[in-house]
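Table S2 (continued). Query chain:
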Amino acid sequence: MAAVTVGAALPLVDLSLAMMLLSAALFGCAFLAVVAAVSAVARQIAPPNVWTAAIGGLTIAVSIGQSIGPVLVGVLSDGSGWLKTGLAISACILVFGTICAAFQREPDESRSRRLHTE
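Corresponding output:
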């Protein structure tokens, strides 16, 4: 998640072509890892009989964010007349998400084992 945040924030530092390409590569590659991690967590915390529904629900939530996020950033950037406004807000939201993820507790093993045997 931190790599996604850094990738999103790089254009705030420099708008050169090299920085944009580095930002796109870092963000794109790291974002795939976030999706895989969310799927793995869904399997850890949910019983096997609801894995499909849990992963499907998370996929829908991510796709809604991927659809709404760029529109909101565009509106914010157009409203301020400055592209970096939307990028800065996006980076701040990602920083918040990264902090939340860093303090996320591991699932309780006994609860997880109990859910998987029911």
